[in-house]
Design brief:
97 residues, mainly alpha, 69% helix, elongated
Length: 97
């Protein structure tokens, strides 16, 4: 078992869960009355908020809508494709003869 295989096994589910959390966070932005400090919303807010805070300083809301979760979905999807996609770096390393 190579380090690239282990990295793939760890990164694939981790990046998938992060994309899911950010998509759920996008849905939560449609409901501003949702209290993100209470269960079950804090399950989504706690892991995503550290990523969103610095990006909010760079990207202001557009028309009152926070678009930073959408940006993070794009960033994580790009990272996942670069590392784990069909032509991804870790995929190519794992299939070297």
């Amino acid at each position: 078992m190579t380090p690239a295989t282990i990295a793939s096994w760890i990164l694939a589910p981790l990046l998938g869960v992060m994309i899911f959390l950010f998509i759920f966070r996008i849905v939560l932005t449609w409901y501003p009355q949702a209290n993100l400090t209470q269960f079950p919303f804090n399950i989504v807010a706690i892991p995503t908020e550290p990523f969103l805070i610095p990006l909010r300083k760079l990207v202001p809301p557009l028309g009152g809508v926070d678009i930073t979760p959408i940006i993070w979905v794009g960033i994580i999807s790009l990272i996942r494709e670069i590392l784990l996609g069909q032509q991804g770096l870790l995929t190519m390393i794992n299939h070297v003869p």
